Amino acid sequence: MGSADPKALVRLNGKSLLARSLEAIISSGVASSIVVAAPEEFLTRARSEIDIISESGLKDSEASISGIRITVVAGGDDRIESVQSALKYAGSADIVLIHDAARALTPSDVFRRVAAAVRAGAEAVVPVLPMTDTVRRAQSRPAVNSDQSSTATDVPSAPLPRSDPNGRQNMVESGADSDPEFPTVEVLHGDLDRSRLRRVQTPQGFTAATLRRAHEEYDHDQATSSSGGLGATDDAGLVERLGVDVVAVDGDEEALKITYPLDLVLGEHIAKQRDGTARDTKQRDGTADDTRRDATSESGPRR
Ligand SMILES: Nc1ccn([C@@H]2O[C@H](COP(=O)(O)OP(=O)(O)OP(=O)(O)O)[C@@H](O)[C@H]2O)c(=O)n1
Ligand SMILES: C[C@](O)(CO)[C@H](O)COP(=O)(O)O
């Protein structure tokens, strides 16, 4: 994102991603307690975001905000460590939802769908959306070598350069063995059947026992792994390693992960519409923007 502050403190229409995430959780009505994991040096600022929500008022949810215990704790160096810090404060809750503050515009309905599916008996639940792009596997091979099959190696799953949202540099010169003396190109193989692929969002919901077991198992495997970090980009992945089924429910395009500056432009637009401060709040048919959104967004995933 390139901002000096942690991303959760970046603002959309004047309100931080953290504050917007908390509002969505609170107004969903599914939480009895919320734990926020924040970078240690930003704990005070994270706490002040909670005060802002209280002051600005959550409309008719104000009563429930005082009924919901909100705790701010120091997170860790990565997502998994932060979740583990927060889990220590989850008390005796038997269902836990893990949410990315970066998905600050997640509609409350998504929280309700996830919580309902766990209550209905699933051990692990994630909101998902269909793939709209064609997806292929990437391999790198020497740029000048005609024998591609014997030298191709999987492109490492390191993130694309943050400075280039489209990762164009990676598309040309793979980072796998990017020695300038031996340039590589990236070649693509194999159509993956996109009708069977899903984009995974948060909140991800779990029975607390299963989530704790998944983290313990992950920690154990990390400690005993001879091949370095196991890599885990979400909690559902850890639960899946236990052999537990991860159940999908409908996600929502507005639960986008604010990752690149371009996402802020879209996020700002959505936030303004919701806050009723969009310049063009009146549509030609006379309905307000946020009224139109309510009619479409809470009814399931949109492409
Ligand atoms: N040490 C960390 C890093 C990330 N996260 C969580 O993982 C989410 C997604 O992470 P990411 O998009 O990578 O966010 P950041 O690392 O915060 O920001 P940036 O995109 O600038 O790298 C964050 O919103 C946050 O909820 C966390 O809990 N602890
Ligand atoms: C959990 C997640 O949002 C699901 O899509 C995603 O894996 C988080 O990834 P990040 O690398 O921590 O942004």
From TrEMBL:
One of its GO terms (molecular function) is 2-C-methyl-D-erythritol 4-phosphate cytidylyltransferase activity. The keyword Transferase applies. Transmembrane segments: none annotated. This is 2-C-methyl-D-erythritol 4-phosphate cytidylyltransferase. Its EC number is 2.7.7.60. InterPro entries: IspD/TarI (IPR034683), IspD/TarI_cytidylyltransf_bact (IPR050088), ISPD_synthase_CS (IPR018294), Nucleotide-diphossugar_trans (IPR029044). GO terms for biological process: isoprenoid biosynthetic process. PROSITE patterns: ISPD. Residues 142-154 have a biased composition (Polar residues). The keyword Transport does not apply. It holds the Pfam family IspD. Coiled coil: none annotated. Keywords: Nucleotidyltransferase, Transferase. Residues 138-183, 269-303 are annotated as: Disordered.
